Amino acid sequence: MPRRPSSPRTPRPHASRSRTTPSRSALSPAAPCPCGLGAPYGECCGIFHQGRGAAPTAERLMRSRYSAFAVRDEDYLLRTWSAATRPPGVRFDEAIHWTGLDVLVTTGGSAFHSEGTVEFRARFRVRGTDGEQRENSRFVREGGLWVYVDAIG
User: Fold this and answer.
1) Quick one: which of 65, 42, 70, 41 has its CA closest to 55?
2) Please, how many CA atoms are within 13 Å of residue 62, restricted to the half-sphere of its CB?
3) Quick one: DSSP state of residue 5?
4) How many CB atoms lie within 10 A of CB 69?
5) Which residues pair with residue 148 across a beta bridge?
6) Which positions ≥6 away from 5 have C-beta within 8 Å?
């Protein structure tokens, strides 16, 4: 999700040159997790965001990164970004409210793989207008952990 927008209709959070620490949105551990799996945030992606576990698959990492964008967790996003492509910081657009996630296709990315891709559609609302971002993200294992590398194509 960190690529620059390709058009004004597809706003995306993007890497910044200087690291800032944006305020995180308050999300109760009992609230539904933004990733869409149906579990409470504190039992789903919140575990990964707090460092109490690591995503076991590329898809779970992608879902947890989507949730990190939704709650504006810059530390988690940077921690789960490949060292080869990681920016110094993430700048969030305060006008974007992430509203849903659909995983469309996954390849590889299981406990038995060293790389994988996840194609997804992330829905958002900006100033009363709904939109979506589609991306096919590439993930690899670094030090045994899944990390985001970049968007394909």
Assistant:
1) 65
2) 31
3) P
4) 23
5) 81, 139
6) 11, 12, 14
Q: Burial-class residue 82 by CB neighbours within 10 Å (0-12, 13-18, 19+).
A: middle
Query: Residue 13: which of 23, 22, 3 has the closest Cα?
Result: 3
Query: Model-level pTM greater than 0.70?
Result: yes
Residue with the bigger pLDDT between 147 and 19: it is 147
Q: How far is 83 from 88, CA to CA, in rounded Å?
A: 10
Q: Kindly state the percentage of the chain with pLDDT values over 70.
A: 84
Environment class of 115 (CB within 10 Å of its CB; exposed 0-12, middle 13-18, buried 19+): middle
Residue appearing with tokens 């509203």: 99
Give the Å distances, CA to CA, from 19 to 15, 16, 82, 89, 106: 9, 7, 17, 4, 31
Q: What is the DSSP letter of 32?
A: B
